[in-house]
């Protein structure tokens, strides 16, 4: 007969304290600014600007209600349409960063979709985001950078025009171009010219692929767009050559755990993330749309730690993984890495709770 395992023994897997996981310094690189707007804020903005929100954005209390990804995306677009001034961007950015900092977030790359806000110029939007980010940094220390996301639905030519606009208004905090929206709306190949132009100007490149689409989408992102990171990428599990290639190249995958997404087959997502980690991919965890889909990143950490039986070493590895995937300049990343390392060491004795012997 074997001895009963002690689930709180440091040598064992699992049992990490929620307080510890919340306090862990965290960095994420895959988070949509407009997916950070809580329903109460969306309703306030929509009323101010006379925008009609879908029922699922109005009557779900603290949560948005939607049955599937497509319906969620419709709500997301309505929330985008409710942000019509630089001050709206400032308020949303500030609120989202301060909220996340309460759960240990120290660095975030925020994507936003300029094409979903036709009332504003690119510079008005970035100006608002930067003002909100500055205020959040002064209050909490959280550092952020911006990813300009191309909405696939608008096609390749509009994407090229967007990149031209980005290059005409350079901001050091804008570090990358991304691609999001409905993965069924257009192949990555449509966006080659936009990505080529962004790369030539020194911007980093990322793209959503392999969340709803198949692995050929991901191969296009790698071979035709030349991405430096893959957002989601679960479909790699269906293609052993792609899996081996990306494990060897160490290209970062920004995965999302989504404990609060009842419409998604959550168990399947958890299995995928666990399988990707087991396959040796360079994986970090991200909240994606913390207000729309939920939850905040620290809640993902708490759930993933319990479900996957994280050790302290696992928790520390995931805390640092977002920095490895970051597109911030080397000085900023190294500064954050030093801070994280010191903080992880300081927190280590608390990993199993204050009363643990
Ligand atoms: N996936 C794709 N596009 C998006 C998302 C998402 O979760 N959120 C906002 N745009
Ligand atoms: Zn996303």
From TrEMBL:
UniProt record similarity statement: Belongs to the metallo-dependent hydrolases superfamily. Adenosine and AMP deaminases family.
Q: Which UniProt keywords apply?
A: Hydrolase, Metal-binding, Zinc
According to its UniProt record, which cofactors does this protein need?
Answer: Zn(2+)
Query: What EC number(s) has UniProt assigned to this enzyme?
Result: 3.5.4.4
Q: Does the keyword Metal-binding apply?
A: yes
Q: Which residues form a coiled coil?
A: none
Lineage, broadest ranks: Bacteria, Bacillati, Actinomycetota, Actinomycetes, Pseudonocardiales
Top-level EC class as recorded in UniProt: hydrolase
One GO term in the molecular function aspect is: hydrolase activity, acting on carbon-nitrogen (but not peptide) bonds, in cyclic amidines
Query: Which is a Pfam family this sequence falls into?
Result: A_deaminase
Protein name per its UniProtKB record:
Adenosine deaminase
User: What InterPro entries does UniProt report for this protein, alphabetically?
Assistant: A_deaminase_dom, Ado/ade_deaminase, Metal_Hydrolase
Q: Where is the Adenosine deaminase domain?
A: 25-338
């Amino acid at each position: 007969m074997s001895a009963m395992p002690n689930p709180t023994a440091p040598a064992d897997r699992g049992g990490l304290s929620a307080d510890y996981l919340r306090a862990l310094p965290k960095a994420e690189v895959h988070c949509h600014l407009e997916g950070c707007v809580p329903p109460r804020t969306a309703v306030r903005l929509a009323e101010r600007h006379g925008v009609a929100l879908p029922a699922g954005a109005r009557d779900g209390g603290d949560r948005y209600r939607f049955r599937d990804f497509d319906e969620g995306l419709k709500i997301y677009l309505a929330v985008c349409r409710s942000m019509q001034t630089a001050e709206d961007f400032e308020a949303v950015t500030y609120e989202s960063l301060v909220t996340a900092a309460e759960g240990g977030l120290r660095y975030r790359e925020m994507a936003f979709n300029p094409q979903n806000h036709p009332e504003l110029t690119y510079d008005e939007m970035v100006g608002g985001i930067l003002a909100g980010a500055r205020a959040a940094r002064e209050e909490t220390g959280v550092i952020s950078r911006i990813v300009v996301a191309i909405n696939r639905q608008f096609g390749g030519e509009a994407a090229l025009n967007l990149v031209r606009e980005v290059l005409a208004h350079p901001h050091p905090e804008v570090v990358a171009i991304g691609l999001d929206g409905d993965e069924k709306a257009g192949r990555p190949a449509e966006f080659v010219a936009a990505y080529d132009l962004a790369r030539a100007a020194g911007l980093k490149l990322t793209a959503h692929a392999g969340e709803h689409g198949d692995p050929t989408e991901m191969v296009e992102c790698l071979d035709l767009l030349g991405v430096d990171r893959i957002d989601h990428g679960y479909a790699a599990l269906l293609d052993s050559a792609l899996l081996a290639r990306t494990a060897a190249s160490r290209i970062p995958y920004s995965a999302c755990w989504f404990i609060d997404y009842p419409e998604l087959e959550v168990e399947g997502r958890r299995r995928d993330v666990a399988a990707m980690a087991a396959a040796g991919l360079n994986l970090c965890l991200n909240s994606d749309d913390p207000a729309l889909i939920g939850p905040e990143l620290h809640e993902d950490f708490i759930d993933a730690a319990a479900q996957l039986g994280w050790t302290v070493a696992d928790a520390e590895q995931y805390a640092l993984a977002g920095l490895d995937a970051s597109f911030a300049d080397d000085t900023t990343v190294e500064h954050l890495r030093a801070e994280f390392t010191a903080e992880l060491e300081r927190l280590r004795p608390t990993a199993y709770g204050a009363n643990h012997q």
